[in-house]
């Protein structure tokens, strides 16, 4: 049948008899048995020592096919070993000449399943497979699939569209994985989006596959970077910036100097990677990073576009922002102003460059963004004054109170603070990290004081997934405060619910938080929240799913009518409270 024909495709060109020839011989002969014997002799394994052994195998009922097959498999293994050996021995030109001759002879059999591995092996070891052969492979889906990645690279480097088709599903998968972590149902302050080390992240499936596809091919590496830039521009999704850095560092781990030495961001990224690992920019590395930025020469400004993308990676921003908050606290202790700290100014310079990545790549104007003086002279001192307010309040609490009574915590915020958060991107980023910091310190007073400033922020940053992911995690430390009506009203009505109806992601994060903390929330408040968070017709699947999970949990908590009469309303049994140990 046609399947058989395909199996032996190409044999005739090589002057090797196939099934068709046997059929022809038998059709035109007088003595079929003699003809078969003759065909076997002419086309069998030509080893004199075998002539006597074959009838012996026949006696044992071993079919000739089985015998030929095993000889064939053995020979193919030997041949594959030999090809791999040829690829490593002798002078370069000679060994490739040998392999090219072998490819010329064997390529017509590439469709034979039994021979295909040998042909593929020869191509895999050729640094330049002849153009004509590549085109034939490309035109045949099955052959293309069967190819080694070494051969595919040669095809891809001149076919950006085909390479794009291979890379695109991986990039989609990467973004999806990131979003799944941000929306994960496990809310914890210890294990969050930023917990995995850079080394661990680079072991991820997508980064590994891309690294494998690129090999040492600079052209393919450049194509992937081009895809990432284009997608970042199209979507503003910062996870593409993370992948840009992870890919470079993955090639760095494998010591692929062919690529690392030509990527002008390599040393900068390597140094920043060490800071991200420590979640802090120390003084020595700060000097090094500054050296790279100051060293950008006239005519090479385009590298700033790449550096800005590396700095726009959320893991880089996280590290720079955490370091900024730490520096501000140290400055309070040293009684130093922000403008007198070169380290702090460098952190701000890198934050600006990172936050300006999209605009720079979009406009193709490669110069560092201007730093707003007021950020340094007004906004940061204001944050420092908040730190001082906390110190003062804490000291006051410890002093024996005279007749004057306890000093209340300052409840107002300077109007300028709110304005900065609305109008200045860097101020907003640092302000949000300060709020994460006080929440992590379980500083309820400071949180309630600053929350109103978050309702309107620069480009809605306070409702971005990364911030809400971190905030919900940190809020678990204030779990006991959720029993207080006033705290819940400030947090939910005053902040979360202001955006729930217009922002699906906020709706999801609030539901995540309640799934985790519902047993801590004041019962009357819980009821009104359940109403307020009910999905609408427009709500997506994720919101509906979370809401159903929450409803189920709350159903389980409802006491049976018998219990209600005996238990005062405030002390309902809470069967679902996790004990700290089991969390």
UniProtKB/TrEMBL annotation:
Q: Which organism is it from?
A: Phaetusa simplex
- The name on file for this protein is NELFB factor
From the broadest rank down, the organism's phylogenetic lineage runs: Eukaryota, Metazoa, Chordata, Craniata, Vertebrata
Name its GO BP terms in alphabetical order. Answer: negative regulation of transcription elongation by RNA polymerase II
Region (Disordered): which ranges?
557-583
Q: Which GO terms describe its cellular component?
A: NELF complex
Q: Gene for this protein?
A: Nelfb
Write down the InterPro entries for this protein, in alphabetical order: COBRA1
User: Which parts of the chain are coiled coil?
Assistant: none
